[in-house]
Design goal:
By secondary structure, this protein is of the alpha/beta class. The chain has 13 helices and 17 strands. Strand 6 and strand 7 form a beta hairpin. Bound molecules: iron/sulfur cluster.
């Protein structure tokens, strides 16, 4: 059975039978707030639509098997079982953007929630600090399975932002990710493209496609080292995507999209966190429109040999980037740490990549989500 959120499939089947395509949005809107209802039971459908839905589509193909909330209620993790029996995690991070200030001003807005979705079961990129990397690649999620993560989350909270920072390298499942984003930004969910972020280790050919396919979504690149040699040590996939070529690709992406790029940098003690490496990174990025996010490594549950950089090293690294190279640089602070121990891969990944950003010395000016950094 197909997921009713598999947009390409349902469109094709409706088109073939001359069924009004506007019904898709009606069905999705209803199912986004009603659980335990089959797609053909949605009120207001034609008989032809009901027949197609009854025979070929399930309202959701995935099931939430567990929901875990952090003690401070800021973070909710959903353990989701897919149709093929595999599990992925989806994490909702919520906060009130009116709390605190930014750049001396009271923040606009109000309660917001960011959803972190998985795009693959496992991952073949093999980053040595990441638990998922050690699992190897198991399978790709379909577009419908990615959208269903938003459906499950939307039943709990209104989602404003979506980040592709869960299990998997999203650009290795390119077609499904692009299709899922098109569904998320469509009439039913109406997530603004600028509130969606794709995080990649730097899959060059796909970044080149992304600038044409989704020019308005945010791109976050996991750089993690300023030199190719160190990158290869901690991210084996970097051998296929050399740093110089990646930087050229990002330049061309930026010329086309006119958007800031987010640079993710996990802070590993003695590996990539030294002062000279901060200068190397500064030199590499100083002419570019980027925001650097320094991610303190969280070794809990990690099978890797790395340990987290000291607070002093992180502060110094940030200071060099900001003061010498004038690069906007934030340090991430974990949300819902008490439940990250329950995670598999996300245990490591989420420790940094799905958390609020704060700048040392200006903690009352914490940046609640990555999109706010592009303001
Ligand atoms: S950090 Fe991301 S790309 Fe690297 S192994 Fe983990 S999931 Fe894959």
């Amino acid at each position: 059975m197909n997921s009713v959120f598999e947009e390409a499939v349902i469109r094709q089947q409706f088109e073939q039978r001359g069924i009004n395509l506007k019904l898709i949005s009606l069905i999705w809107k209803y199912l986004a707030v009603h659980e335990n209802v089959e797609a053909y039971e949605v009120p207001g459908l034609s008989k032809a639509a009901c027949d197609v839905l009854r025979t070929n589509f399930k309202s959701t193909t995935s099931t939430v098997k567990a929901t875990v909330k952090s003690a401070d209620q800021s973070t909710t993790k959903l353990l989701i079982q897919l149709q093929n029996g595999s599990f992925v995690e989806t994490v909702i991070m919520s906060y009130d953007s009116r709390l605190g200030t930014y750049a001396g001003r009271q923040r606009p807005g109000g309660p917001r929630a960011t959803l972190c979705v998985s795009s693959q079961v496992g991952c073949k990129m093999g980053c040595t600090f990441c638990a998922t990397g050690s699992m190897g690649f198991k399978s790709n999620l379909s577009a419908g399975e990615i959208v269903e993560q938003l459906v499950h989350a939307s039943r709990l909270l209104q989602i404003r932002n979506v980040v592709f920072m869960g299990m998997g390298e999203p650009l290795n499942n390119y077609n499904s990710v692009v299709e899922a984003i098109r569904s998320m930004t469509g009439q039913c969910f109406q997530i603004a493209p600028r509130h969606i972020t794709i995080s990649t280790v730097g899959v060059i050919p796909r970044i080149n496609s992304l600038k044409y396919d989704l020019p308005n979504v945010n791109l976050a690149v996991s750089l993690h080292a300023p030199l190719q040699e160190v990158r290869c040590q901690i991210m084996p996939a970097a051998r296929a995507y050399p740093l110089r070529k990646l930087m050229d690709t990002l330049r061309s992406y930026q010329e086309h999209c006119k958007r800031k790029i987010f640079i993710e940098y996990i802070m590993l003690d003695g590996i990539n966190d030294q002062e000279d490496q901060a200068h190397q990174l500064g030199t590499l990025l100083e002419e570019r429109e980027v925001v650097v996010n320094l991610i303190p490594f969280n070794p809990i549950g990690s099978i890797s040999k790395f340990s987290s950089s000291t607070k002093e090293n992180i502060e110094l690294f940030q200071k060099v980037l900001r003061n010498v190279y004038n690069i906007r640089t934030t340090v991430r602070q974990e949300m819902g740490q008490d439940i990250s121990g329950a995670c598999g891969q996300l245990l490591v990944k989420f420790s940094g990549e799905n958390s609020i950003n704060m700048e040392y010395g200006r903690q009352s000016e914490g940046i609640p989500d990555i999109e706010d950094l592009s303001l």
